[in-house]
């Protein structure tokens, strides 16, 4: 069973196109979990208009709304994947378009790996090609974030087995990017691979939310130490559980 997890907020413009690129690749037993963070537009109405029983909309309830957009997105995704029942979990943004063979090619790799990440084709808001991919000629870089690099993970390009989901939740309280946390856990405890071929169209527009911020050296160091501490605790718990 596959669970596709999507976090939405005021995504009425593109969410239908996103879903219609995903649903034909799923079986009747699969599910699409959509966590909506209090959209004030017609996002939920557009989703419900598809009238597909595989789609389940859940509301992300929180007492206060953080001013940090990345934190909001991260917690919204955490809410979505907490409802996932599938053996394989795909993450998706609200405004991209999956290529018709994305699920098939990711599942082939997941026969051998716990997590897979693929390249993304850059397009404008009308899906016109920008003649480049996210990872370019250099490809995806593993094992770089904790060593003062910038993490390369894009959640919308990731799929992973449930065994990973069971160890990454709950997210650390100070986490502001769900994708690199999931990726780090996969690299540390399991296995991960990269598919060079772009398997989706990634819209580049003013509403994109990058998980990379321009922070001071002090913040970057302290945050990496915090993530390293959280990673170590989870690894110890995992090892103890499977001893």
Polypeptide structure, described:
This protein is of the alpha/beta class. The protein has one domain: Spore Coat Polysaccharide Biosynthesis Protein SpsA, Chain A, CATH 3.90.550. Helices cover 34% and strands 23% of the residues. Strands 1, 2, 3, 4, 5, 6, 7, 8 and 9 form a 9-stranded mixed β-sheet that branches. Strand 1, helix 1 (15-22) and strand 2 (31-36) form a beta-alpha-beta unit. It is globular. The mean pLDDT is 87.
Tags for this model:
about 240 residues; alpha/beta; Spore Coat Polysaccharide Biosynthesis Protein SpsA, Chain A; 7 helices; 9 strands
Brief overview, please?
By secondary structure, this protein is an alpha/beta fold.
Share of residues in helices: 25-40%
Give me the CATH architecture, please: Alpha-Beta Complex
Question: Low-confidence parts, pLDDT < 50 over ≥5 residues?
Answer: none
Give the topology string: H per helix, E per strand: EHEHEHEEHEEEHHEH
Overall residue-averaged pLDDT value: 87
Largest sheet: 9 strands, mixed
